[in-house]
Structure formats: structure tokens, C-alpha cells
Amino acid sequence: MKNTPFTQKHIALGAKMAPFAGYNMPISYSGINDEHATVRKAVGVFDVSHMGEFILKGEGALALIQKVTSNDASKLKNGQAQYSCLPNEQGGIVDDLLVYCVEENKVYMLVVNASNIEKDWNWISKHNTDNVEMHNISDKTALLAVQGPEATKVIQSLTSMDVLNLKYYTFAKGVFAGVENVLISATGYTGAGGVEIYFEDVNGAADKIWDAIFEAGASYGIKPIGLGARDTLRLEMGFCLYGNDIDDQTSPLEAGLGWITKFTKEFTAKSILEQQKAAGVTRKLVGFEMIDKGIPRHHYEIKTATGETIGFVTSGTQSPSLSKAIGMGYVQTGYATIDSEIFVAVRDKLLKAKVVKFPFA
Amino acid sequence: MSYPANLKYTKDHEWISLEGNVATVGITQFAQGELGDIVYVEIETVGKSLAAEAVFGTVEAVKTVSDLFLPVAGTITEFNAALNGAPELVNNDPYGEGWMIKMTVDNPADVEALMDAEAYKSLVGA
């Protein structure tokens, strides 16, 4: 099992640790509800160094990205990032990712899910017919997400880069907490605002940055946050989790990712997805909240009042912010409209739920 | 972590305390810590007579769900209704206000045969 540059810090802080995507990761510290509230109300720090980063360089880099991703990366200017996905040949999803434009037409960074690093690398390599220079910098890249309404104030106090005015999905590169070559982007997976900080862990940079952030954040009540609260935070926003809500079998259109599927350019499975769009999808990913008491979980079946199966749950939890049970799942299109009554099979019972709008909170 | 000496324990991480043939049952300090923030305790077996190790309910934490197993054979007589509004009592006070059920025990000797605090501590490495 791999460690991140922060594994010893997590253990020293008393985190509950568990293997995730081959890494020894912190699941929680003070408890999921407390950590969740910290991010919604103040500021929290996530170690997400397990995520994968690829650099694509040179002449054909943009053309390769355009070919393998569904969003239109030609729209990106220097310092802009974009949410996208890698469709497979059948119109399913190899992975979802962020595309960072470091230097227009020349240098791009792709940020992919930890569990898919090898799969994505092989997939993009297979489509790299013009010998674009590719580097997998995942192992040497540390990544901290500092999230919450107070996050940018804490981060601003450690750099001369203009973090406070960094627009959503843009980034800057410079000196941070005395460490050079740090990339700060106004992105995240919580909906609480804040930044993600990428850097290479050389000369004790990881320790230096972690300690500086916690010192600067002390007066704001900063806390370390585990993967448990990362999941409840993203779920409240209706953000997809690869392996739960999207996978090789789900199309971006079914998953509500039509907004990152641009038919104005060529890409893998474009024609399949175009047909799907024209014909209309037969199932859709929806958000729902429980009316009856119970908690939906991944793989539970979604049914009608009479017990006919119409879909399945992909994610579910008790929402710490709303104090009610919420979930996401695929249902037949006829049941996907807001306020549709659906039922979740929880153990031996059918519990009533209703389809609601994203985000939940 | 604390494991009161006056209780008996099961390998499924329940505790039981017996007075006459009436017992109180809950989950241990270790179990609540492993589950994390508990959000729902569902017990719909009040009035039922069940065998030892039968599932008498489920406990839902934010991230996970776990069955509850009856420590010994008997009849469930009461559910701690305070848990409906405040399931976090199980986290905060697992041996006190976070108790889950009361039951009449078929054979009080079954309780005696369960693990004592020392044996349970070594099971969970405490």
C-alpha cells in the first residue's frame, strides 16, 4: 500500500485510516459530521495526494485532449481549468477529470481519479498516435484541497499570488509558504469554495506547506478532513463520484453531464452520444430525498409503489447539513422529473422517496 | 476506551447487563467508534422472541450500515425511544443513555457464558 507525503501526519493526528485506491488514506479525524460542518462553516484541509496527474506537452497535446475528452479544451486560455470526461468506445465513461491549460496549445495537466490512474494512462496512450510527450507525475505530486468559506483568506496569507480574486476554475502558479512552483486552483469537490494546491514534495515541501496552512488557519478553526466527509460534502452538491454514479456503463448524457459533452468537435463515441441525445436517454441520474425513514446505499434497488424495479441507487447518505437522508441513482426517464415518487428497497421494505433538484444543500 | 466490568460482551460488539431475567443491550465503545457518527437506529422487533445471534435491528452510520445481533435468546420488550430523536447518544454514551433494547432472557446462564470485560478487551486489542 502506498503512502502520501502526509500519511505520518494523519496517523499522528489520530485519523481513522483505511486503504483507498491503493493508498493508506485518512477516512475521518474528529467524526464525519464535525468535519463536514467545519468545511461548510469555516475551513478544512483534505489530503488528496492520491489523485493522478498527467502532463501532456507539445504540438499535438491539445489535439489529443480534444480526441479523448468530451468537453472542448480548445476554449481554455492559460490559467483556466475545465471539468471533462473520457468517453469509451461504447459511450460509457473511462473516467472524469480536470483539464488544466498551463500553456495554450503546448502544456496541459490532466487530473484523474486515483483508482483509474493506470486505466486512464493506458487509454490516453492508446489514442496518442502522434507521439505527444506524456508524463505521469502522479507519484511525485502532492495535492491538498483547502475548502470552506474561510479557505481563501487562510491561503492568501501565505502567498503573494492573488488567491482572493482567483475565479472559479482558474489557477495561478508561484511561491506558496516559501515553496516554489506551487499551483493553486480555485476548484474543489465540496461546493464550499476554496482551492486545491498542487506541488512536488521535494526538500520537505509537504511538511512545510501542511504546517504553514494549519498555523495560518488556526484562528479560523481549521481542521483536517477525511475521505468520509469528502463524500458527504460532494454528495450534498450532487457531484458525481466515479465508480458510484458514473462508470464504464453510464453515458455522460444519462449522468447529467451533457454540459461537458460538446458535439461541436470530434471525440471518442461522439456519434453514439449524438444518437443518444437525439433519441433521448432511457434512464437518468437523479437526486432524491427520503420521505420514509431510512438511508439509501449504493446498489439498493429503486422501485415503483407496486414494486417494479425502475433503477438503482448509486450513492446515499444521511446529509449532515440537511439532517435528512439523500441519494443519487439512475431511474427510467419517466420517473426522473422533480417530485416524482419513487421507492428504495432497504432490506425487506420499500421506503418512499421523491426526486429533487441538485444541489441538495 | 472503557469497558465496564459489570457488563458482558459478544464477539459482535454488543454489551448486555442482566438484573434478574431482564437485560439491557447496546453496542460497545469500540463498535460505536468503528461505525462513526450514528444517524439511525432501526429496531422493529419489540415483542418478538429471537434466538441468540439473531438480527434484532440495524444501525446506520453516515458511511455504513451494520446489523445488530441479539447476545442471548429471549424476548425483546422495549426499544430506547430516545434514539429516534438522538441517535448520537449511542456515540456519546454507549453504555448509558445510548442503550438500545431491554429484553427478557430465556436462560440467565447464557449471559454468564459471554465474554467478560477483560476477554472483550483482548478481542478488540484495547
What does this structure look like?
The complex is a heterodimer of chains A (361) and B (126). Helix content of chain A is 21%, strand content 35%. Chain A is globular. With 361 residues, chain A is of the alpha+beta class. Among the domains of chain A are: 7-48 and 139-236, 2-Layer Sandwich (Gyrase A, domain 2), CATH 3.30.1360; 282-361, Aminomethyltransferase beta-barrel domains (Elongation Factor Tu (Ef-tu), domain 3). A six-stranded mixed sheet of chain A has the order 10-11-12-9-3-13, sandwiched between helices. Chain A has a six-stranded antiparallel barrel with strand order 14-17-16-15-18-19. The model of chain A has no long low-confidence stretch (mean pLDDT 97). Chain B is an alpha+beta fold and 126 residues long. In chain B, the strands form two sheets. Chain B has a six-stranded antiparallel sheet. In chain B, a hairpin with a 2-residue loop joins strand 2 (14-19) and strand 3 (22-27). The longest helix of chain B is centred in the last third of the chain and has 8 residues, at 117-124. Chain B is globular and about 35 Å long. The A-B interface holds A 16, 27-28, 31-33, 228, 231-232, 293-295, 297, 317-318, 320, 325, 347 and B 36-37, 39-40, 42, 58, 60, 62-63, 65, 91.
How does the SSE layout of this entry go?
The complex is a heterodimer of chains A (361) and B (126).
Chain A: H1 7-12, E1 16-20, E2 23-28, H2 32-41, E3 44-47, E4 52-57, H3 61-68, E5 80-87, E6 93-103, E7 107-112, H4 117-127, E8 133-136, E9 141-147, H5 151-156, E10 171-176, E11 179-185, E12 194-200, H6 205-217, E13 223-225, H7 227-237, H8 270-279, E14 283-290, E15 301-303, E16 309-319, E17 324-332, E18 341-346, E19 349-356
Parallel strand pairs in A: 3-13
Antiparallel strand pairs in A: 1-2, 3-9, 4-7, 4-8, 5-6, 6-7, 9-12, 10-11, 11-12, 14-17, 14-19, 15-16, 15-18, 16-17, 18-19
Chain B: E1 8-9, E2 14-19, E3 22-27, H1 29-35, E4 38-42, E5 49-50, E6 55-61, E7 65-69, E8 74-79, H2 82-85, H3 89-92, E9 101-105, H4 108-112, H5 117-124
Antiparallel strand pairs in B: 1-2, 2-3, 3-9, 4-6, 5-8, 6-7, 8-9
